[in-house]
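Our consortium's second objective concerns turning raw sequence data into structural hypotheses that experimental partners can test. To show how far this objective has progressed, the report includes one record in full. It was chosen at random from the queue rather than selected for favorable results. The single chain below, 240 residues long, was entered without modification.
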Amino acid sequence: MTYCVGLLLDAGLVLLSDTRTNAGLDNISTYRKMFTLEEPGERVIAMMTAGNLSVTQTTLARISEAIHDPDATHETSIMKADSMLDVATIVGDMLSRVTAETKARMDRMSQAATASMIVAGQRRGGRMRLFLIYPEGNFIEATEDTPYLQVGEHKYGKPILDRVITADTPLEEARKAVLLSMDSTLRSNLSVGMPLDMVVIERDALRISEQRRIEANDEEFARMSAAWSQALRDAFVQIG
């Protein structure tokens, strides 16, 4: 399983994913689920994946092939698309096709094959956008009222986002919120695991502003996790 979360804020985008993939209790691996593309000054795109690894890897491979195709057009390549809405449409169409192809083979063995993706970014002249793309290729978009989207094991990390995240949350506070959201998930679900990948894209920067991998022995993350646990214990004791 996995957990990925993306925030769409007035100040920019904050994205975080884990890297654990498991196919049973004795088959646990680490795979990157955060992928970024940028043409500085023109566009920046980030994608996070959750679900069947075969589906997500094939989808990403075909998206990459389309980007490098010498005959690529704005209708086939996410790096030539006219808007982030068109990017989401291209990714959704590809995910839908790969899901259908894989499902046809997996159904013969009574196995499931499904995946979803979060796509975020900004094109020059356009606004930042954040989409959650479903296996069927349709998608929803983050709004000012609901400025975050999640895929995977989202229930453990959702409460803190509901309580603290609004569109005007500063980027520094947003970083803290997604990390604590992930920490809650890590503690409650063994199918989500370190290391973590975090990306920050400031509004109108049209490039990756910060990209960081957080390993299991990261001291800053450990201090934040311990402080959050202590704060929760203290609040529990103080409530009458």
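The partners drew two points from this record. The helical segments are 53-68, 84-107, 158-164, 171-188, 219-238. The chain has one domain: 3-238. Both points have been shared with the crystallography group to help prioritize constructs.
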